[in-house]
Amino acid sequence: MIKVENLSKSFGPKLAVDGVSFEVGKGEVLGFLGPNGAGKSTTMRMITGFIPPTAGSVFVCGLDVQVDPIGVKRRIGYLPEAAPSYTDMSVMSFLRFSADMRGLQGEARRTAVRRVVELCHLESVLGQTIDTLSKGFRHRTCLAQALIHDPEVLILDEPTDGLDPNQKHEVRTLIRSMGENKAIIFSTHILEEVEAACTRAIIIDRGRIVADGAPRELAARASSGRLEDFFRSITRSDVQREAA
Amino acid sequence: MKGSWAAIRTIARRELAAYFESPVAYVFLVIFLLLAGFFTFTFGGFFERGEASLAAFFNWLPWLFLFLVPAAGMRLWSEERRLGTIELLLTMPVADWQAILAKFLASWLFLIVALALTFPMVITVNWLGDPDNGVILSGYVGAALLAGAYLAVSCMTSAFTRNQVIAFILAVLICLLLILAGFSPLTDLLARWASPWLVEGVARFSVLTHYDGFQKGVLDSRGVLYFASIMAYALFVTGVVIRSHRAG
Q1: Minimal Cα–Cα distance from B83 to chain A, Å?
Q2: What is the signed CA dihedral for B145, B150, B156, B160, rounded to 10 degrees?
Q3: B222 reaches A (C-beta below 8 A)
Q4: Do B87 and A80 make contact, defined as CB atoms within 8 angstroms?
Q5: Which terminus of chain A, N or C, has less C-beta within 10 A?
Q6: pLDDT in tens, A181-218
Q7: What pTM value is reported for the model?
Q8: Which residues in chain B have their CB less than 8 angstroms from residue A100's CB?
Q9: Interchain CB distance below 8 Å, A101 and B91
């Protein structure tokens, strides 16, 4: 459902994403791993059509992002990094706005809003302005926005960032259950999360894919059998990069 | 096409609600109406003119709008960039131009509402005398177009930066240039050493030249075209700027 071919992006002289290719099918949950600044967010932004690639192409449900960006956007639910939202709106009006933008009207809109409110546990804050919410609720409000049109493809940029352990667990469970009939890509820094929720993981470092496989398989490549050790063996930290 | 208007309407409605859900709209309206009244009845010499017209009000409007319109428009895109919601908005199924147009139209409508709230002046002048209401109407049309042109410029400067203060100052500067090109104390000065056709040529680019036409009661198509092209141009640049930010 998602097909990325030789995707590259440069910002000025800096090559942020360098010839990345992969595919994600229905029923797959792809964990996107990598150090900060490795190009995870940039890749996701290119898939959602927010930024144009310098080279390469992205197909979502067979549609080329460059050719039919609106068609692609219709099929994607996207949670941007840091979960932005219109902070002066109430949760309810924000969700209604998102539903309107997705062309949902009348009963369909009511049902959609009710569904995501339940999924993301927002019942208690519906009338509150987003401004006044805790980070966890804000995050879930933005996640609800991404789910409102029940998209075939979900792109989630650090969906568990800033959540407490209970909330993290819930989001992970949610992702896993939704992954059964959607194609999902999510990025994270938390390696256990990948083992808990993903069917497959890609590790990206300095804009290139350095490993691609089932989490268990990747973990087995380290002598200790731990994903974390494997991750550290093939990626470089900021400090090492400075030194290089 | 129906779908694209639906998206424009949705974004515009949210934008309008954003004005009224925060104190911004009310503060703006109160300040605008107070200042408009103040200028009209003191500096404008509404009573001393001895004529039943709203000239006293309309003469001051380009200067009042010079600060108030950029204040109303500065947040349009810089706020989206600061909050990061631009990423949300532009990954929803809308084209950039729809989002730009929607936000512009919402703010313009807000400014038109502000203008409409000066209706007590129209009532006053009709009660006191026997004004030419056609001239007043065309004056309002000119004022709305002027507000639209300033607003489009503010839209553009607000796309440049995530800092609202910078967006505001840039917009005021550009709008000031648009005024000064036809401001008579300045053009008279220019006329002393420049050839008349040059002075006139520069003045043709000024909002004042075209705005004054409307105040004389002339609904001139060239005037409409002038303001429409400023709006179209500034909004086009807004689109280019927003695209180039994302292209990196």
Answers
A1: 6
A2: -170
A3: no
A4: yes
A5: C
A6: 999 999 988 888 888 889 999 999 999 999 898 988 88
A7: 0.92
A8: 6, 10
A9: no
Tens digits of residue pLDDT in B169-201:
999 999 999 998 878 787 787 778 777 887 777
Which residues, including other chains, have CB under 8 Å from residue B102's CB and lie 6 or more apart?
Answer: B7, B8, B9, B10, B11, B12, B15
Q: What residue numbers bound the domain in which B194 lies?
A: 2-247
For residues A27 and A25, give the distance between their C-alpha atoms in angstroms, rounded to a whole number.
6
Average pLDDT over residues A77-90: 93
ipTM confidence = 0.91
B240 close contact with A: CB closer than 8 A? no
Q: Do A73 and B248 touch (CB under 8 A)?
A: no
Domain limits, chain A: 2-243
CB A102, CB A111: distance < 8 Å: no
Q: Token match 């939704």: residue?
A: A178
Structural domains of chain B, count: 1
**CATH (one of 3.40.30.10, 3.40.50.300, 3.40.250.10, 3.60.15.10) for A2-243:** 3.40.50.300
